[in-house]
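Hi F.,

I've been meaning to write this up properly since the lab meeting, where we talked about keeping a consistent format for the predictions we share between groups. The idea is simple: the sequence comes first, exactly as it goes in, then the structure tokens exactly as they come out, then a line or two of notes. No screenshots and no reformatting. I'm using this chain as the first example so we have something concrete to point to.
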Amino acid sequence: MSSCFGRRKSRREEDTEALLPLYQNDTSMQRSVHQKMHSYQMYRALSKGFMPSNEQTIVNLRTLLAADVLNPDNPDLSDSGRLLAKYTKQWLAEFIEMLRNKNDNDAIQDFIWFLSKSRISVDTEDVANKAANVKSKADATA
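Output, unedited:
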């Protein structure tokens, strides 16, 4: 958009601009420090209520998929640990596919953000009473 004061960025460009800085890593120590700072900044952004885009989420999930903690071939894992690692990796891969194919315009992130800002109250006493009634009916029929 142009004005008499010069060209102004469109609103959409501001919304998609990266919140975290990009670094030029010269040494392995700098890479390590930048990686730790980046992780801290991501955590801080999430704690402040910012949601990652699809692209950012997919990149981080792929990093998690490549982590040693999810390696099902680790000899230190029990059989159930191997299965857990295998199914977790499978679930993450399917979640990445869902994000890629079904989450148009960051709809899931918007839903989570709006849900976090909503005010919900639950009448726990009423829920407990209804649960007790259902339990007594189930015991009576059994």
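Notes:
The helical segments are 11-15, 28-47, 54-65, 79-102, 107-117, 124-141.
Residues 1-11 have pLDDT under 50 and may be disordered.

If this format works for you, I'll send the rest the same way.

G.
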